[in-house]
Specification:
By secondary structure, this protein is α+β, with helices and mostly antiparallel strands. The protein has one domain. Helix content is 56%, strand content 12%. Strand 5 and strand 6 form a beta hairpin. Helix 1 runs parallel beside helix 5, helix 4 packs across helix 5 and helix 4 crosses helix 6. It starts with a helix and ends in a 10-residue tail after the last helix.
């Protein structure tokens, strides 16, 4: 009975989390349409503002910002894969019959265009650079970025499908981060995995090997480093420490909430007698 109760509670929690994630993604692609509508109303006559495969990014505060110039060439190369299945030979070789389907290629191209603005173009690391180092980001966050970029909902299943194709082609590698937060009970918590686009991918992307594009990428890196950003991974120790802190805070909140129920359970009940 206890096992069934636990499973029911777990399934309920998973269902609530899934619905919350889906709602958040819906909010992001609504933000996409509202931001583009406003930007195009303010644009010069005849000029159309787009994001998609363009060198722009929609932030979560609704502001559209320009990406460094090199991303125009990089994202265009991803878009080429939609009409040319042989644009990335490894995907063509290892993707099977699905790569012949333009809908599948479109999905993969859009996921690549979502990963790349979050990528360190020198080392392939996918994450958020900070002064302390690159913070890993989750697939949930990347799905939100997809909605912000393309104004479309993408299901976790579809996103995971595109990721599998990229891994099968040798374009993407990842290492899970698991932290034992309770040595006595063996509680394991995870952090977003280390994710990296590989040398094979950049070789087949080609444009980042052109001298003029390399100059643009190097100039961008120098500007970012001048702002104090560090492009090494945050260490496992640092990430594990943050996971432990979150776990500790959650555990303490649970204990406090339980203690609060002891007081509410003994509250005096109102006298409902009519006399």
């Amino acid at each position: 009975m206890e096992c069934l109760q636990w499973c029911g509670a777990q399934c309920g929690a998973d269902g609530f989390r899934r619905e919350s994630r889906e709602l958040l993604i819906v909010i992001q692609f609504e933000l996409h349409y509202n931001a583009l509508k406003k930007a195009n109303e303010l644009a010069a006559p005849g000029k159309k503002i787009e994001i998609g495969f363009k060198a722009r990014r929609l932030r979560r505060d609704g502001k559209i910002e320009n990406l460094p110039h090199e991303y125009g060439f990089i994202l265009k190369a991803c878009e080429e894969f939609i009409d040319n299945p042989k644009r990335f030979p490894s995907l063509y070789a290892w993707g099977g019959e699905a790569i012949r389907n333009i809908l599948c290629r479109t999905l993969i191209a859009k996921v690549l265009a979502t990963l790349l603005p979050n990528c360190d173009l020198f080392g392939g690391r996918i994450g958020e650079p900070t002064e302390a180092g690159i913070k890993t980001i989750s697939y949930d966050q990347l799905q939100e970025d997809y909605a912000l970029r393309f104004g479309e909902y993408i299901s976790p299943k579809s996103f995971a499908k595109a990721i599998r194709y990229l891994k099968r082609a040798g374009f993407l590698s990842s290492e899970r981060i698991n932290v034992n937060v309770d040595l006595v009970e063996g509680q394991i918590r995870s952090a977003p995995a280390y994710k990296m686009l590989t040398e094979r991918f950049f070789n087949e992307l080609k444009v980042v090997r052109y001298p003029k594009i390399v100059d643009l990428i190097m100039a961008t890196r120098k500007r970012q480093q001048a702002k104090g950003l560090n492009f090494s991974w945050l260490s496992f120790r640092e990430i594990a420490s943050r996971v432990q802190q979150i776990y500790n805070a959650t555990s303490l909140n649970t204990i406090s909430d339980h203690m609060a129920t002891l007081f509410t359970a003994h509250q005096s009940k109102p006298n409902l007698s009519p006399h």
